[in-house]
Design a protein that fits this description.
10 strands; hydrolase activity; 11 helices; 397 residues; hydrolase; 12% strand; Beta-lactam/transpept-like; alpha+beta; globular; CubicO group peptidase (Beta-lactamase class C family); 3-stranded antiparallel β-sheet; Beta-lactamase; Diverse_Enzym_Activities
Length: 397
Amino acid sequence: MPFPVLLTLAAALHAAPSDTLRPAAAPTRARHELSSAAAAGFNGAALARAEEAVLDEMRRGSFPGAALAVGRWDRTVLEEGFGRLGAGDGEVDPDATVYDLASLTKVVGTTTAVMLLVQDGRMMLDEPVSSYLPEFTGGGREQVTIRHLLTHTSGLPDGVDVTGSTPEEGLRRILRTPLRARPGMQVEYSDVGFVVLYAAAERAAGEPLYRLLDRRVFAPLGMNHTSYVYGEGCWNCAGTSRGSMAFRGRVHDPIARRLGGLAGNAGLFSTGHDLARFASMLANGGELNGTRIFRESTVRMFTSRQPGTGTRALGWDTPSAPGTGAAGSHVSPNSFGHTGFTGTSIWIDAERGTWVVLLANRTYDDGPNRMQTLRRAVHDRVADAARPEFTGSAVGG
């Protein structure tokens, strides 16, 4: 049996230009008509306080720039850029500035692919991972299910040093990573688990996941700047570090980098506008502007907190105790979201229909890491700006 498609593709990355994996970025900003705040049930003056929170944090030196997008159900009411991509670079454009999503890859990429495959009947949540990856056996690994990987209860460690001279060898060694606990016994956030999940999903799909995602999600939603492997020559990518360890258009995460930029834990790049399309699709029950990506039942299944997993849903996270985590204290219990190490986040309140995308490159400098505090403030201010009497989807608006 051939090894996963991922290995063949990762090996080809060194010989093929990155343009084979991503759409061309438009050199000028595309203008999009936004809904008015009032039409989506927001208090505009209150909503402006969310923008002020991002601007204030940028002025404190936490990041050189950021993109913020806010909406309700299928309506986007705000897409704003703040500051610059980096020192001496141009201004942030929410339509064109590309950010390294870091762990948002887990939900926008890997989890989304699994949602499609489960919906299609090509993967089963409680099936052993070894049913898709026979290489993933021994040492109790045959007891790990797809659900365990999605909920970070597989027993795999959080990270691992990827060894081997090629991405193929690196993945083979990751698949042999010993478990630290019996599957299902404890929650440990695991990048390793999502690398394994990506490989299993790719085997189930029978094609590279970037092709599946582009055909079924990114292209239908018009997410034209969302892809893996942008490359060092990306003129509109926000850098995630500079100096001798500069990363701009190349994935910041060391595991994903050793795997050639195609990995389940990190490696995806996108813009504020593209993720606004993605968030509004999920907030609107899996459909946007007549294009259905998921059944509503699929969205509910994957975004609902799972028993015995702390705050974890399937791939997604849910609100933590007030004052902790990213969600804030004013969102509804039916909210879900995720964050990324580089300074990225997406949060969706399924009860109110509101959603927030915040992209920053806080790892660019050695400034203070106040992202969780900022995320909570922005999410709370958006929740406060949403009029509670406004109910129902804005489909067709």
